[in-house]
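Q: A reviewer asked whether we had any structural model of the full assembly, not just the individual parts. We don't, so I'm hoping you can provide one. Inputs are below.
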Amino acid sequence: MSPVLDIAGLVKTFGGLTATDHVSLTVDTGEIHALIGPNGAGKSTLINQICGEIIPNAGQIHLAGRDVTRLPPAGRVALGLGRTFQITSLLDDMTVRENLGLAIQAREGGNFRIFDRAAKRNEVWDEADSVLAGSALSARAGVKVADLAHGEKKQLELLMALSQRPRVLLLDEPMAGLGHVESQQMIEALNAARGECAMLLVEHDMEAVFALADRISVLVYGRIIAAGTAEEIRANPAVREAYLGEEDA
Amino acid sequence: MKRDNLVLLAVLILLALVPFAAEFTGQSSWTKLVGQALIYGMAAASLNFILGYGGMVSFGHAAFFGIGGYVVGILYHHFDAGTAFLGIIPGTDQMLVTLPAAVLVAGLAAALVGALSLRTGGVQFIMITLAFAQMFFFLFISLKTYGGEDGIMVRRTNALPGLNMKDKATLYWVVLAFAAAYYLFLRRLVRSSFGQIIAGIRQNERRMAAMGISTLRYKLYAFILSGMGAGLAGALMVNFLRFASPDMMHWTRSGELMVMVILGGVGTLAGPFIGAGALFTLETTLARYTEHWMLPVGILLLVVVLTSKGGLMALIAKLKGGAK
Ligand SMILES: Nc1ncnc2c1ncn2[C@@H]1O[C@H](COP(=O)(O)OP(=O)(O)OP(=O)(O)O)[C@@H](O)[C@H]1O
Ligand SMILES: [Mg+2]
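A: Here is a predicted structure for the entire assembly that you could use as a starting point for your response.
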């Protein structure tokens, strides 16, 4: 079976800096592929190229078999790409429920209608309510996003991304800034979503990476220096030196 | 909800009584003043849809107001002279034709400006919309056939079947009907699926794109809708004052529309109308005493903006809260 996301020979330079240096990787259907690497390695830059916010200098991105290298972000979402942001990015003036509802409305379409009532699209709000009811945010539906705690925002980001029903979900450090309990909740939530979509998981929290990842790729200075299963990565001397070593010290 | 509609109805009834009050008190200028304020309110409300709800700070909105007005003026000019626009389109003085034509042409102009400016943001967007408005301003000044700097006199208000449009009160009520209809239209618009997407784009365009929304297309559509509203207001103004001139699209006019929005309350439905009423009343009253009316108006604007985030609408809400 062909991979749902296939990146080949991607290059991106910022002035003299090569942030993405001939990166190739694949994400298979149903797989969680973790991407680890030190700060500034180019992980977010890679995610943003896959999403279409940044156009690479060279290389191709295939999504579900289609070349999307030059497709605008919205077109990629339509083909089944979802994402979360490293720095949470939500609709701050709206409530939790309204954020989720708008995400569902965006997926459902009919968004050029100017004479309907958004608040009366029952299929949208029923779905939002049932998703919220089964989540850690069930008691927070009416709270404005600006008033949420950091961990709650991270959870809402995940719920909104999943509500797009993506084939592949790009997660840019979903555990960043979470406490231990919150991290455990997030790991559980991601594990539960495993059947719904494939994931490319960018994460510094090695406990989470080892708990979730089927495969791990290591990015250093824009380049993939190693790829393999958790055991292989743990045993790899180059990785220990470049990355894991930092944590042992 | 219910209460909102009651307040709206009460305000409409009061506004409908203005011509009687004017006659009763002998202040015949009231009808004209309130009528103009209502039309400016429509133009400001149309701007508020992109500025307040959509976060697009357009500084060239008067262009569409003026273009709508000129459509009425130019069609009347050819009707009067028995000629045809560009030799093809015959003139007319029928409001049922001129208003839709004005809305359409203003919408086309907005499509052009929007398509060329919406890719930018921030100060750049402000400057580009301003530049386009100035281009239209100078274009109409250069059209000597249509009066150049002097503009076009429209000797008789457009005809509407069954109504005596020569009657000042009738004309005022027609304007009021359009203003009320436009208000109700905007209320539906901001609550629609499209309106919610636009509100989302204002708060976080990147997030909306990540949800699969082609934000540029939505912004363009909003910009066109807004330009059409301004065109309708301009067409009504030319009918009301029987005069179309390049001044309608001068950059200070765009600035005034913005002031009305900010003064009344950005991103509120009634705010632009209240702002238009307040600014217009102030201007005309102060202009009687001094030609430097801009200064007190500017000070007032500062006070309102600094003391109540959200303009007069927020102030009213605060007072209501205090009264309870
Ligand atoms: N728009 C940009 N212009 C110039 N340089 C950039 C730009 N975006 C990123 N960079 C640089 O590219 C490199 C990779 O940045 P990136 O944000 O992708 O790293 P990261 O792996 O996500 O790091 P972190 O773990 O801190 O999130 C950094 O050196 C960064 O300074
Ligand atoms: Mg990053």
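A: Points you may want to mention in the reply: Residues A 14, 17, 19, 37, 39-45, 86 surround adenosine-5'-triphosphate (ligand 1) (CB under 6 Å). The two ends of chain A are 41 Å apart (CA to CA).
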